[in-house]
């Protein structure tokens, strides 16, 4: 049962929301476009189990047969992972047409936030968010994720942003749109594969209870937007900055040389970085998603107490 006629909330997720139990949303573009098969499916299933171990119910989000789904079965996750890039990457501008056509879509941070909010889910864990791309002053390539953070009240727990983006411009954009950028246990914005970026976050917060308190205040005040929690990759999985930055620079140069643009840019860069680092970056990527799932579940568990 749902207020939104296009939305299907899985029974376990609907029950948890009705009982005021913690729920954590998860995106599906990371499954179809962010990682190769079969690691994508293994990771997605493991993330769900980590969320359960930390006291919350997972709700992986996607569009299947035109239905906006909050909560997928393992078979549905396998289906999305196997289809990979053949599933449409669905951002805000895509979902109406996909729904009307009865098509499938892998949800980005943007559409995962939208569907989570429709379903009544307040906390969402992922790997990295989209942002302002390098060279955006001429390409105008700015991810819809930033707009969504500005207007949809969902907490997004990520590992910062990859330096495939212009991190400084991404922070400026978030500031303009009133999105608080929190560092979990750090004053510095993490850069996904590495714990440091050279850029400061707005606030350091050190416990899930304090994260929940800050977001609760935002919700109670009726502020429209979300909150971005950046959680540094665990030290033991972080990458050598020189190695990863060299791979990123090379990937950006190849994208430019090949004229890659629009929605293809981010998936292209992610795949290239993975190829250029011989798969080391994939291990780091997987571990940081696990780390974010843990923090999101613990924060969701604190939020329901408030
Ligand atoms: N950045 C990552 N990993 C990802 C993505 C971005 O490090 O998987 C995915 C997310 O789904 C994000 C989307 O919402 O790419 C952003 O795409 P674009 O830059 O086209 O808005
Ligand atoms: Mn883009």
TrEMBL record:
Source organism, top-level taxon: Bacteria
EC number: 4.2.1.70
Cofactor(s) needed for function: Mn(2+)
Positions contributing to substrate binding: 89, 109, 143-145
Annotated catalytic residues: 27, 162
Keywords: Glycosidase, Hydrolase, Lyase, Manganese, Metal-binding
Any matching Pfam family: Indigoidine_A
Lyase in keyword set: yes
One BP term from GO: nucleobase catabolic process
GO molecular function, a single term: pseudouridylate synthase activity
Keyword Electron transport: no
Catalytic activity of the protein: D-ribose 5-phosphate + uracil = psi-UMP + H2O
GO cellular component entries: cytoplasm
Note on how the cofactor is bound: Binds 1 Mn(2+) ion per subunit.
Residues that hold Mn(2+) according to the record: 141
InterPro entries tied to this protein: Indigdn_synthA-like, PsuG
Main function: Catalyzes the reversible cleavage of pseudouridine 5'-phosphate (PsiMP) to ribose 5-phosphate and uracil. Functions biologically in the cleavage direction, as part of a pseudouridine degradation pathway.
Family, as annotated: Belongs to the pseudouridine-5'-phosphate glycosidase family.
Complexes and interactors: Homotrimer.
Listed name of the protein: Pseudouridine-5'-phosphate glycosidase
The encoding gene: psuG
């Amino acid at each position: 049962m749902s207020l939104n006629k296009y939305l299907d909330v899985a029974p376990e997720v609907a029950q948890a929301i009705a009982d005021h139990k913690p729920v954590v949303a998860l995106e599906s573009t990371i499954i179809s476009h962010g990682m190769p098969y079969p690691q994508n499916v293994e990771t997605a299933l493991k993330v769900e189990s980590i969320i359960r171990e930390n006291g919350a119910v997972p709700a992986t989000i996607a569009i299947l047969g035109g239905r906006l789904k909050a909560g997928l079965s393992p078979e549905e996750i396998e289906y999305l992972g196997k289809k990979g890039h053949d599933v449409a990457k669905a951002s805000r501008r895509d979902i109406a047409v996909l729904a009307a056509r009865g098509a499938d879509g892998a949800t980005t941070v943007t559409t995962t936030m939208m569907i989570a909010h429709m379903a009544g889910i307040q906390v969402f864990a992922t790997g990295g968010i989209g942002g302002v791309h390098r060279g955006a002053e001429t390409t105008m390539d700015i991810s819809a994720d930033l707009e969504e953070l500005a207007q949809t009240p969902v907490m997004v727990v990520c590992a910062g942003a990859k330096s495939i983006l212009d991190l400084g411009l991404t922070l400026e954009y978030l500031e303009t749109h009133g999105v608080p950028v929190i560092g979990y246990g750090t004053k510095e914005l993490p850069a996904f594969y590495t714990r440091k970026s050279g850029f400061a976050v707005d606030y350091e917060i050190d416990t899930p209870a304090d994260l929940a308190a800050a977001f609760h205040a935002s919700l109670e005040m009726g502020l429209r937007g979300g909150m971005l929690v950046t959680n540094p990759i665990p030290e033991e999985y972080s990458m050598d900055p020189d190695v990863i930055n060299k791979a990123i620079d090379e990937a950006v140069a190849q994208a430019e040389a090949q004229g890659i643009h629009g929605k293809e840019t981010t998936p292209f860069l992610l795949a290239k970085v993975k190829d250029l680092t011989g798969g080391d970056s994939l291990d780091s990527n997987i571990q940081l998603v696990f780390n974010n799932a843990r923090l999101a579940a613990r924060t969701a568990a604190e939020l329901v107490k408030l």
